[in-house]
Amino acid sequence: QVQLVESGGGLVQPGGSLRLSCAASGSIAAIRSMGWYRQAPGKQRELVASITSGGSTSYADSVKGRFTISRDSAENTVYLQMGSLKQEDTAVYYCNTVARKFYEYDYKSSWGKGTLVTVSS
After folding, report:
1. What span, in angstroms and rounded, lies between the C-alpha atoms of 30 and 70?
2. Alpha carbons within 13 A on the beta-carbon side of 85
């Protein structure tokens, strides 16, 4: 599978901003999409934002207008700029990609290990 390494999590005050990064590696031939999911304690993992190879984006209603996803295709890296953070944004954020490796035919989903974002005063 493709390896994903997330960075940028941490503690931030309500109303603050944070940027997450996720770099994909591992003989990648093509990426169909990259995205961010999150899982808060006691809750199911949910999609936060995603971006396709063509640049189309989608967001959870709860983060629209506050979060922005972007991608550096040359570096196989995806970013999540988070603003106006709320306590309810506290969660472990996971990077996901649907990609195909060289010498493989199928696109497969891969996950990072997650990075913790804590919004608290």
Report:
1. 17
2. 22
